[in-house]
């Protein structure tokens, strides 16, 4: 567990990163089915929010979420050896007073070396406003039990210019680590950015914009990335313009993330929001998750869509968590015919879904 003293010493860089390897996507030509069906019930990961997970090299799964206790925000790491049915807490990456320290959006990822990284947002705030924004990475060399600070890839002073929702993947060369995240330029404008590292996340390049550069009044955010096949990638994100409703969009890359384009709308319910998306490749079928209030009532539900043509078209909508549920995550399971839908539904939960 990261003590308060450690947190104080790292005020400008705080906390820790967990590294977990991302599942390798199956080429689109080996596509499995596209019709999703719930398999079993919801499985509790722990009492927290914003769950994310990735496979480790031994075939087990490492997960992370943000818990809250005694006025503190706590980045918590859990482990599953049965493909997400049961979860056990193994460590705490960082802890800070919620009133002054906004730590959240954890994403775990394992490097080829076996080191586990955890990337997360790590902000300072005072009197309800943000005074400094960071994306921070911590690492563990003992399977998530103990954590140390590694780097701060992005940092900006408040009260605007926020950095949010980091996501990690390893490039096709097996060496280049890619960090995707969202950055505010103003209250009305936010872009999707990427930085790269060739030394395991210790140092980072300057940021490049992968979506949002063509407009100063749209907010692109909540970024997720999946491999379609080979060097072909798809990124998914929410966006809204001039304070309107959120909808889900995508861009693609044919050179493993170096350049991006081909912006498309994935889902835009008329008069309602669709937001906070993620994406994964399940045996060649792309699966997108998001939260939406389109059913009316109070709160949002988690829904998924599938695509059998690399993201050109989407369908087969399914609710994986009813209202009120938030912060959808995804993890392809090793059988490449099923996946975990993750969400905060009265705590961090995992729901298995199969494709046929």
TrEMBL record:
The keyword Signal applies. Residues 136-346 form the Sialidase domain. Gene3D superfamilies: 2.120.10.10. Keywords: Signal. Residues 1-25 form the signal peptide. It holds the Pfam family BNR_2. It comes from the Eukaryota. This is Sialidase domain-containing protein. The lineage of its organism: Eukaryota, Fungi, Dikarya, Ascomycota, Pezizomycotina.
